[in-house]
Amino acid sequence: MPDTLVADLYESLLVETEHSGPAIKSEPESVAEPEPVQIKPANEITLTLGQNRKNILVIVKNEPAGLPGENDLAFLTGILQACKLELDDIVVISLQDYASVGYKIILNQFNSKQVILFGASAADLDLPVLFPDFQVQTVAKTQFLSAPALAAISADKLLKSKLWVCLRRLFNV
């Protein structure tokens, strides 16, 4: 296109090289810096019971959700004593509190060597294998034991004996 035609099309300037109006002062506005917000990663588990000295993870599925109640905790403590363990040797978490967290993240978080599921199943954790209650199963170099809820076991002698047989094998007691 010839220069004259372009000049005729754009009679008014597209870009002003000189400003003909009043000068515009641009002063920076003082904006208060927002305080940083601490957000915990979705995969960080914080609500636990025990110190995890021996890398043993106990996952409970309770109704209502949460860590074991007083009676269940007393029963769990008795189980641990029979296995020559203390509450500080393990860590207890509630499955409902961390349902969105995958089993790999849970195992990495606690460096778990052994995991006992009370009232929870392998399917609840999205484990790649399914196994019945009272069967020790190794997955990803971690031993798993699934059992009914603590309240159900404490009320039934047969369930107690089945659990004891598995715990003896799991902990070499």
Can you put this structure into words, describing what you see?
This protein is α/β, with parallel strands linked by helices. It has a domain at 56-171: Rossmann fold. The protein contains five helices and five strands; from the N terminus they run αβαβαβββαα. The protein has helices at 3-9, 70-82, 103-110, 150-154, 157-171; strands spanning 56-60, 90-94, 114-118, 136-139, 142-147. Strands 2-1-3-5-4 form a five-stranded mixed beta sheet. A hairpin with a 2-residue loop joins strand 4 (136-139) and strand 5 (142-147). The longest helix has 15 residues, at 157-171. The chain is elongated, with a radius of gyration of 31 Å. The protein starts with a helix and ends with a helix.
Rounded radius of gyration (Å): 31 Å
Shape: elongated
Helices, by number, come to 5
Question: What's the SSE pattern?
Answer: HEHEHEEEHH
What CATH architecture of one domain would you give?
3-Layer(aba) Sandwich
What is the average per-residue confidence, as pLDDT, rounded to a whole number?
83
The unreliable regions are 36-42
Q: Could you name the CATH topology of one domain?
A: Rossmann fold
Distance between the termini: 94 Å
Instruction: Please give the largest β-sheet.
Output: 5 strands, mixed
Strand order in the sheet with the most strands: 2-1-3-5-4
Brief overview:
By secondary structure, this protein is α/β, with parallel strands linked by helices. The chain is built from 5 helices and 5 strands; from the N terminus they run H-E-H-E-H-E-E-E-H-H.
